[in-house]
Specification:
With 175 residues, this protein is mainly α. It has helices at 2-92, 95-115, 137-174.
Amino acid sequence: MMFPQSRHSGSSHLPQQLKFTTSDSCDRIKDEFQLLQAQYHSLKLECDKLASEKSEMQRHYVMYYEMSYGLNIEMHKQHQQQVLGAIERAKQVTAPELNSIIRQLQAHQLSQLQALALPLTPLPVGLPPSSLPAVSAGTGLLSLSALGSQAHLSKEDKNGHDGDTHQEDDGEKSD
């Protein structure tokens, strides 16, 4: 019956090792559990903080959105009021006033072109282009536009004066 004795002696030696190992394992598990609890607590605090920041950011977003929407509506109203005012002013402008403003603008443009001292007359027939002073593309275009403006002005002056004399004649007839 050696077998039971060896088993018994082996078993008496084995429980001490198991107790020591079990105790160490329990301590390690306990330490790891406490570490995990600390990490969990830290992560939970961080999560709560982020949730709070998220709520605050959403609140700011809603506030800014409402302000932006309100400003957009106000600007639209002001724009509409400005347009309505401009339309009312435009309705009050008479045709003679409009013609006067157009003539003033054309005269102003003509005086600006004359201030640049550009030739406003077309080339004499037979004058070779080589005898012209060198001009850049920009001044060449300006002189062409000036010629076009001058021709346009002379047509309007003729039309405008004829129309003005007719209006004056009509005005005299109504007296």
